[in-house]
Amino acid sequence: MKNSSFPREIFHPAVLVGALGYFVDIYDLTLFGIVRVASLTALGLTGPAIVQHGLWLLNVQMIGMLVGGLLFGILGDRKGRLTVLFGSILLYSIANLLNGAITSLPQYYILRFLAGVGLAGEIGGSITLVSEVLSRQNRGYGTMLVATIGVTGAVVGAFVAKLTDWRIAYFIGGGMGLVLLVLRLSVAESPMFRALHQAGRSGPPRGRFLALFTDRQRFLKYLRCILIGLPSWFVVGILALLSPEFGKALKIDGPIVAGTSIMLVYMGLTVGDLGSGLLSQWLHSRKRVVCGFVLFTLAAIGLYFSSIGRSTTFFYSVLFLLGLGIGYWALFITIAAEQFGTNIRSTVATTVPNFVRASTNIITLAFQGFTALFGGIVPAALTVGVICIGIALWALAGLEETHGKDLDYLEPL
Predict the structure, then answer these.
(1) CA 54 from chain center: how many Å?
(2) Any domain includes 413
(3) Strand partners, 253
(4) How far apart are the two ends of the chain, measured CA to CA in Å?
(5) How far apart are CA 395 and CA 361, in angstroms?
(6) pLDDT tens per residue, the chain (413 residues)?
């Protein structure tokens, strides 16, 4: 039930600036996939080398996000939620600007790693801040708005890449980030963190990442929070990024463009994030909604691999449905934030999505292994996809329902 403060709360500066920050984050995060072929071709690569280095560059970026998730997550609990939001956007904005000026492959690897480190802090920091600023009745709407506006960055990135050179597209991303840095000055720190910070040394331990592994129940809860996000990056990192190759393997009637595929997946994700956020509020349940979306993703994966010989329009439509299915991204990060106390919430909410993103390394390695085993990319990807779905459903089943949970509490570390 929405209360009387609903309109004022969901348009809180933390929500609006968080949504714009996530917009720039997603723009940059997906831009590499969109300009992968054009940028690597400009650097002199051809044929299989484009696929090989494309996957390696994606993995390097995801490793950077894993490092950044640890760094910014711990900083968020020790120094404040705003420290994360300022530091992360400054780093990835500068990396983006420099990315547009690269002249060699080693430079590309270095800057994608640094961009990954910077990108790591955005969504976790925003979700943590919004969850602590808004009331328990309305925080689901706030995180929904952050995600829904944010994921449209991929759509804008696809259009920008079509209208401009790939270097200009990187320059635009960096410029948007620096503009947003100024807007962040209007956002205030979380009152829950301020109260914790004022306790100083006499207060409880903060941001102890290793404490997530010292207690069996706490570790399992943390692991389950990570695993429910696996289908998302299987869809983005395999089915969308390599859609041109899958289009050929499935004998789709026409060429498939990776940029268009990624744009359609994120258009579906935009609708999905809006829908999952609203449903979780209306049904008073996070878990039931996530379960429904994961099962929908499984059905869409089946449709993707049964589209042999179909038209490009049909194939692109399935990619939109895949995006719709994984449109529980913000909801799963919200679940993670709601599972843990204020003194470690930022660490969890920032590292969880980045462990999921970093799992792309494992997913792509498994995909490559199964490709060699089965002798083709279609059975390999289908196998990996079913495994990701099964793991996500197992993980979800073991988590508590957190809709409407009071977040003003401390984690015993």
Answers:
(1) 19
(2) no
(3) 311
(4) 34
(5) 20
(6) 445 555 677 788 888 888 888 899 889 888 887 888 899 999 998 888 888 888 788 888 888 988 999 999 999 999 888 888 888 989 999 999 999 999 999 999 999 999 999 988 888 888 899 989 888 888 888 888 888 888 888 888 888 988 999 999 999 999 999 998 888 887 888 888 888 877 766 667 888 899 999 999 999 999 999 999 999 989 998 999 899 999 999 999 999 988 789 889 988 998 999 999 999 999 999 999 999 999 999 999 999 999 999 999 999 999 999 999 999 988 998 999 999 999 999 999 999 988 888 788 789 889 999 999 999 999 999 999 999 999 999 999 999 999 989 888 888 87
Cα(333)–Cα(349) distance, integer angstroms = 6
Q: Report the number of distinct structural domains present in the chain.
A: 1
Rounded distance between C-alpha atoms, residue 182 and residue 107, angstroms: 28
Question: CATH code at 110?
Answer: 1.20.1250.20
Region of 310 on the Ramachandran plot (φ > 0 left; ψ -120 to 50 alpha; else beta): beta
Name the phi and psi angles at 311, rounded to 5. -75, 165
**Residue 147 belongs to some domain of the structure:** yes
Evaluate whether residue 52 is within a structural domain.
yes
pTM: 0.85
Which of the 8 DSSP states describes residue 409? Answer: -
Residues with Cβ within 8 Å of residue 66, at least 6 apart in sequence: 116, 120, 354, 355, 357, 358
Only one residue has tokens 């990108």, namely 119
